[in-house]
Amino acid sequence: xxxxxxxxxxxxxxxxxxxxxxxxxxxxxxxxxxxxxxxxxxxxxxxxxxxxxxxxxxxxxxxxxxxxxxxxxxxxxxxxxxxxxxxxxxxxxxxxxxxxxxxxxxxxxxxxxxxxxxxxxxxxxxxxxxxxxxxxxxxxxxxxxxxxxxxxxxxxxxxxxxxxxxxxxxxxxxxxxxxxxxxxxxxxxxxxxxxxxxxxxxxxxxxxxxxxxxxxxxxxxxxxxxxxxxxxxxxxxxxxxxxxxxxxxxxxxxxxxxx
Length: 259
Prior knowledge:
This protein has helices spanning 29-32, 39-45, 50-53, 99-127, 169-179, 200-209, 234-258, and strands at 7-10, 16-20, 59-63, 130-138, 157-160, 190-192, 213-221.
């Protein structure tokens, strides 16, 4: 019986996409006995609640499967964490996965990439352009729950654009500015390519479609939760979601008047 990969595609009449490819926590039942990482350890390195941030009036792709089963933001040959150096020093599997299991996982990877590319091509054919919000979160308390955050190296919001075509530079500047102020006038520390420059999915999609659109790899520092316990802080989560919602006007204005 084939291994399952849980995911959800939602189509919306929009040239824009919201991805939450690391939101998931599920592991296929047939793989659980192979794991030597605990659910709590997994949760800490996953991106919980990013599916909520991705609830935008966009086309959506949300992964319900954990990155510890298959990481869609890595190259195909690196998408299964077979060595601790691939996964923050964590030994993920008790024993070597069989070739059959690995091949099934790689097949899922191929199918999902094909599906994502088909969706983007459909949008390009319909609108002539696209933008992806590739939504992630990251840990800033790696030295322990009482650690002091190095704010110079850990902005509240990091926008990864390292793979984008230079033609989207103006759109990028406008997008960053749209995230810097909340509706109540609160200012947010939003910077470009400080912590992350965008993962493999961004690199792949930009190479294939970069003339027609770009991928904003949006990394929220996990201020909206306790990264050690998993407790969510709903008000902060909603603040960040509101920033994404208000940024939509920037995209729509750019492609209406400035493209």
